[in-house]
Amino acid sequence: MPLIKPRTRGKQLVKHRTRLDRENNETLYAYAHFLGESPEYVLNQLIDTVLARDKEFLQWRTEHQESFVPRTRTHSRRGGGTRRAAPHASHPSGDPVAATTAR
């Protein structure tokens, strides 16, 4: 009997890139194939089931409900530095839409 629960709908997914040990990667894809599900689904279910057993973490999490997701940075493809948003240009009238159409 598989340890992972059937798929549920209605969850919001976000993109996350990571690297895995070669053996874990092989196991992940084999288990996903065994279930007939995607590797992403298997990873989500592993997090749900394994971390749900850590009572100390669950207690800590109730005390620390803020997000710990790092803020994303936009990197330029050439220099690797952080791009800053350009200041919002405005038309002399103060209308930003007029500024883009006046050019």
Itemize the secondary structure elements and their pairings.
Layout: H1 22-35, H2 39-51, H3 55-63, H4 96-101
Helix pairs in contact: 1-2
Folded structure, characterized:
- The protein is mainly α and 103 residues long.
- The protein has a domain at 40-65.
- The protein is 41% helix and 0% strand.
- It contains 4 helices and no strands.
- The chain has helices spanning 22-35, 39-51, 55-63, 96-101.
- The longest helix has 14 residues, at 22-35.
- It is extended.
- The termini are far apart.
- Residues 96-103 have low confidence and may be disordered.
Key terms for this structure?
mainly alpha; disordered C terminus; single chain; 103 residues; 4 helices; 41% helix
Quick rundown:
This protein is mainly α.
Q: Unreliable segments (pLDDT under 50, ≥5 consecutive)?
A: 96-103
Q: How big is the Rg?
A: 22 Å
What is the H/E string? Answer: HHHH
Q: Helix content range of the residues, please?
A: 40-55%
Shape type: extended
Based on DSSP secondary structure assignment, what is the total number of beta strands? 0
Largest sheet: none
What is the overall number of helices?
4
Average pLDDT confidence is 79
How large a portion of the residues is in β-strands, by DSSP E?
under 5%
Would you tell me the structural class of the helices and strands?
mainly alpha
Kindly, what is the distance between the CA atoms of the first and last residues, rounded to a whole number of angstroms?
65 Å
